[in-house]
Specification:
Blueprint (H helix, E strand, L loop, with lengths): L8 E6 L6 H12 L3 E3 L10 H16 L1 H7 L2 E4 L12 E8 L2 H14 L6 H8 L4 H5 L7 H4 L11 E4 L3 H12 L24 H10 L1 H21 L2
Helix pairs in contact: 8-10
């Protein structure tokens, strides 16, 4: 089936864990309705042979459904590596939110701790081994966790870069850059036990993050630079 015109454009929203992705998912769902589809289940951001094989199988299925996706949807949002859809659609707008790696690393650890029931090998292994924060930060499956989601895509190739720390301003930027109003600010899937403010990062934890998530630290520095340029360009 030949697809042309406005339906040939696809918004591809990469949900980096613990970086405002659930909040943004709700906003996109409200904005696009039936033209929105979730794509979870790839075990993205989890670098093991089993997970890589699963992603390869699911990528093949998604690429075989290209025309159906273009016909039925305008936005795909979820835990997927950008390579899954890169080059598949005539016009692609990749977007993503990022978070300070020190905060994102700790937040993801506590997310795993709070959710032992999840049907995911990361949750099973995490809880069977009663992993501490130090254990988690030394777990090579999660090294450079945020960077994993970009695959071969460069952050400079994204049509929009949001920062979870500046979520309201990010929504305004998304509206002005992408051309869709995501609506009012809502926060989803937050750690209610943490309260307000940031996680405290102890010196030993900081050293582990700097050793095992160096690419994420570099990525976040670039994300902040791009975010600042976006703000200047659209005067938000």
């Amino acid at each position: 089936m030949a697809i042309s015109g406005v339906l040939a454009r696809m918004l591809l929203s990469i949900h980096v864990p613990k970086a405002a992705g659930n909040s943004f998912r709700v906003a996109l769902t409200n904005r696009f309705g039936k033209r929105f589809i979730k794509d979870y289940g790839d075990w993205a951001g989890f670098n093991t042979p089993e997970a890589r094989a699963r992603r390869a199988r699911r990528e093949a299925v998604a690429r075989a459904q290209r025309d159906t996706l273009l016909e039925r949807f305008d936005v795909i949002h979820g835990h997927f590596v950008a390579d899954k859809y890169r080059g598949l659609f005539p016009v692609e707008d990749f977007v993503a939110f990022f978070r300070d790696p020190y905060q994102q690393s700790i937040a993801h650890y506590y997310f795993l701790l709070r959710n032992p029931q999840r049907e995911h090998p990361e949750a099973r292994f995490f809880h069977e081994n009663a992993m501490t924060l130090h254990d988690y930060l030394e777990w090579d499956a999660f090294f450079n966790h945020q960077t994993q989601f970009l695959g071969k895509l460069q952050i400079e190739d994204l049509a929009f870069v949001g920062l979870s720390e500046h979520y309201p301003k990010s929504l305004a930027l998304f509206r002005d850059i992408i051309g869709h109003d995501p609506g009012e600010q809502r926060f989803e899937n937050v750690n209610v036990e943490r309260g307000s403010g940031e996680y405290k990062v102890e010196a030993d934890v900081r050293r582990l993050i700097e050793r095992n998530r160096a690419a994420d630290i570099e990525l976040y520095a670039k994300a902040k630079e791009i975010f600042a340029r976006q703000c200047q360009r659209v005067a938000v």
